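Morning. Coffee machine broken again, so started the prediction first thing and wrote up yesterday's gels while waiting. Chain of 285 residues, entered below exactly as on the submission form.
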Amino acid sequence: MDIIYLNGEYVSKSSAKISIFDRGLLFSDAVYEVISVINGRLIDMDRHVSRLERSLGELSINASADWSAMSRNLVAQNDLQEGVVYLQISRGVMDERDYRWPSPDTAPTIFAFAQPRVLVANPMADRGMTIITRPDLRWQRCDIKTTQLLYASLMKMEAMAAGVDDAWMAHGDMITEGTSQNAYIISQDGVLISHQLDRRILPGVTRIEMLEQAKLMELTIEERAFSIDEAKNAAEAFVTSSTLLVMPVVEIDGHRIGDGRPGEKTGKIRQNYLAAVQRASSTTN
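Came back before lunch.
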């Protein structure tokens, strides 16, 4: 994966350079997207572009490009069959460090790269994830996909230290989302519960298609917050993200979910999701 995109050029990663006065470096004044690649094809690219452009607009970052063509070129030039494409756009370079933004016509910094990763045959899908819960202490605009990821990184490391796979964050007793995933439960009476879209969670791209597949399965869906205790007493739990796709959760804070194995409905949702996005990618890439 040696070829990256940087400000209009495809270059080797060893020769790519970004200014130390870039606002992405100094202030995390940047947004990003991560797009899945399966069988050499981009997954849900149009939805990722829509979310990227919304994030740019929310932060008033003036940037435009053919994001889809850029991503396709990276996949081709790196011969990526399965993995991810990462896009990042910062507000650009300042003459000096200053909290105030540079002028609106400052050129943004745009870069992108590809990484191989096992997505479809991820062994975690067979065993399920283990989760701890922690307070959600992030800033209050989690709906914007910014590079302010320090707290999420700290929580991932805390999960690792606790011997589990990841963490779900909560305001008080109410789950918001995972460190890099949307969080869900399926209640004992078969209701799929997903936190409503608001400023406390990222509007996940994988979430959109997953909910479409759940509707086709005729599952009842409730978009609302759910509590830690509600999650522990659920029949099933799972997460969605561009890297984990639909991934079952089998333990929360040491409490076994259901029978401690990936749930049947979750497995069916994952299977249907993969089939749907691969069909769609074959006609849009």
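The two ends are 20 Å apart (CA to CA). Going to sketch it on the whiteboard this afternoon.
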